[in-house]
């Protein structure tokens, strides 16, 4: 065999190996995507983002909803692991209220993901982060909707989010206590119900109770990281949760969750991000099961 022929043979072999490697990579990616979508289950991830809150709802039709983004870019790693590599879109982002332990991570998300729509209250707040958030929304031309009770968002077949609070639009208004402006929403999938509360406190819970809003939910995202000023006995009696999820940072300086609150949750199964890390549920039409 001449030297040229040998070289050609080696080249052919290299081409073949590159092709095989590319093919293997392609199959790998497709398998990952396929594996994610093989059943009709909804994934709900309560991420451990330290002292803050970030929740991802991921439907089999590849529609995703992110409720708050936590206090830092920690959310990016969480999303990177939770979503298929090829999926750089989040269809809806909900900012419950503009405090940094909910907002900061969302700014990073806007920079790196294609966000389809944003739902927020639009209250007045003078923080530079909030200004940066709105500048990014404008720059990227993302449709922005102000929340009010009665809005429903259909995410997939049998999957809906209903806005319960605020009762009316409150955009542009000033509030001393931004926590009490938090968007409260209820998730319905088949027979499953979940209540998302942001950092709602008594000033939010009481009007909801007074108005007789149907708060009953199988899973409750405990408001304000388990603060004692939220999740009253009356509120719990109306929600009747089987499972309570608390998003709080390990050894946080606020002492969240408060012992008083944990006492009120007696008889409810409790999961805490400060102790359990990420808390993931898989829901079919009948049940949500913790993974
Ligand atoms: Zn908070």
Q: Topology of this structure?
A:
Blueprint: H1 3-36, E1 42-46, E2 55-58, E3 64-67, H2 74-82, E4 89-90, E5 92-94, H3 100-112, E6 114-115, E7 118-120, H4 128-139, E8 144-146, E9 152-156, E10 159-165, E11 184-189, E12 192-196, H5 202-210, E13 219-221, H6 233-239, E14 243-246, H7 259-264, E15 269-272, H8 273-276, E16 279-283, E17 288-290
Parallel strand pairs: 3-5, 4-6, 5-7, 7-8, 12-13, 13-14, 14-15
Antiparallel strand pairs: 1-2, 1-16, 2-3, 9-10, 10-11, 11-12, 16-17
Helix pairs in contact: 3-4
Verbal overview:
By secondary structure, the protein is of the alpha/beta class. The chain folds into 2 domains: 1-36; 39-290, Metallo-beta-lactamase, Chain A (4-Layer Sandwich), CATH 3.60.15. Helix content is 32%, strand content 23%. It is built from 8 helices and 17 strands. The strands form 3 sheets. An 8-stranded mixed sheet has the order 8-7-5-3-2-1-16-17, with no helix packed on it. The radius of gyration is 22 Å and the shape is globular. It starts with a helix and ends with a strand. Zinc ion is lined by residues 53, 99, 101-102, 199, 224-225.
